[in-house]
Each structure stands twice: as structure tokens, then as C-alpha cells.
Amino acid sequence: MTKNILVVGAHSADFVWRAAGTIATVTSQGGSARVIALSYGERGESGELWKEPNQTVENVKRIRYEEAKTAAEAVGAEFICLDLGDYPLDMTDFAVDQLIGVFQDFAPNIVLTHNPIDPFNPDHPVASQMVQKARLLATGAGVDSAFSRITPPDLYFFEPHQPELCDFKPNVFVDITPVMEKKIKAMDAMKAQGYLHQYYSELASRRANHARRISGMANVKFAEAHVRTLPWVVTGL
User: Which CATH number is associated with domain 4-228?
Assistant: First the structure.
């Protein structure tokens, strides 16, 4: 069965480092992917761009959009930015309503977003909270109701930059070996944060080592780690 995967990041580049391989895996298997950035990260994630003389917010946003759109296309995804502003990102009713609309329109089977704990980034936990709230409201909070509702999608948290300090304990490893070149292409597009390229390439190798040890799958060379938040519902083990 083909699947719809929705990835929501606080900033326009978040999906690239943490979930580009997972997205490419879904789309390479015939699924659809939509990436939602709550902001462009124009204030807190674009330091290299602000070193340019006479830089403006509008130009930073334009560059960040073009980079993220190119990165999303590299892994077969659609990119949309809600442009809610960053540092701080605020969970307003308007923002949640926009996310609810995304859930209802796209009807994802899988949702990936930030870990709810991140002592180093003020926007990431807010994004996680927004996604969780919008998901519940879009599904009718688990009960039949008078307004439009979608089938509850699986919810995953992707890996934060400092996992050990964010209480991140992965229980899902996605083998991204067949699509690693697509992730590399997506990372290459994010020139405003090019310093992260090596870190996340090395992380994919480390996570593959964990995946091999867990599964015995010797061919796993690159992997991404996530936390599945909901129990599996099965008819047998």
C-alpha cells in the first residue's frame, strides 16, 4: 500500500538533516510526501546569510525557500512554508488551524516532527506540540464528531541534534542506504547551513551500525533514527 508522509519542521531545513532519507524511501516506493516548514528560520537558522552586506529578511526568506524547495524535490516531496516566524515560534490558534487544514487536505498515514524535548532550541518543542495538537483535532480527538475528521496517522519524532541531551531514545531505524544519494543531494541544496552536511552524513553511518547490530541486516550502510509514539495495533504477533 502506498503511503502519504507528512513531515513538519520548525524551520525550512529541519526535514533535510533528520528525515530526508525516510522521505525518499517512501516516495521511491510510490508514496507521496509533503514537507511543512512552520518558518523559514530566517532569524535563528540563517547566520551565514546575514553575513552578506545589506542583507534583508525578504531576501533571506527567498533564499531559504529556494534551497528547501530544491532539497524537497531531490527526495520527491512537495515543500510548503507557513511563514509563522522563528525565534520565537509561537503556538497561536491561527497556526494550529493552518496545520489542521494541512492534515485534513493531505490525510497522511505517517507524520514526522520534532522531539518534544530540546533544551537547545526554543522552536523545536513548540513545533512538536503544535503538530500533536493539530493531529488530534484533525482526527476528531479520537471520537466521531460533527466536523470533518481523518484516520489517525502514525506519529514519529525524528532525531534532534543533541539526542542524548534531549531524552531521545529511538525505537525505529529506517534503512536509507538505497536513497542516501538523494539525501546527500538534499543536504547539498542547503548551502546556508552547509556546516551540518558532514555531521548528518556521519550520523547516518552511526545509526546504520546500530541498525545492523539490532537486525543482523549486514547491507544497511546508512540509516535514520526515529521514535514511534503510538503502539502497533495488530491481529497477531
Answer: 3.40.50.10320
Identify any residues that bridge with 8 across adjacent strands, giving them in sequence order. 36
Q: Which residues partner with 113 through β-bridges? A: 157
- Residue 83 grid cell: 511563514
| Cα(85)–Cα(152) distance, integer angstroms | 28
From CA 119, how far away is CA 163, in angstroms rounded? 11
SS3 of residue 211 by DSSP: helix
Reported as a single tens digit per residue, the pLDDT across 67-89 is 999 999 999 999 999 999 999 99
The residue type found at 18 is: R
Contact indicator for 177, 208 with CB cutoff of 8 Å: yes
DSSP conformation letters of 69-121: HHHHHHTT-EEEE----SSS----HHHHHHHHHHHHHH--SEEEE--S--TT-
- The 3-state DSSP class for residue 33 equals strand
| Coil/strand/helix, residue 165 | helix
Q: Name the DSSP letter for residue 139.
A: T
How much is the CA Rg of the chain, to the nearest whole Å? Answer: 17
Q: Domain segments of the chain: what residues? A: 4-228
pLDDT digits (tens, 9 = 90+) for 98-120: 999 999 999 999 999 999 999 99
Instruction: Report how far apart, in Å, the C-alpha atoms of 40 and of each of 67, 78, 204 are.
Output: 10, 15, 25
Give the whole-angstrom CA distance, residue 215 versus residue 41.
37
Residue 79's SS3 state is: strand
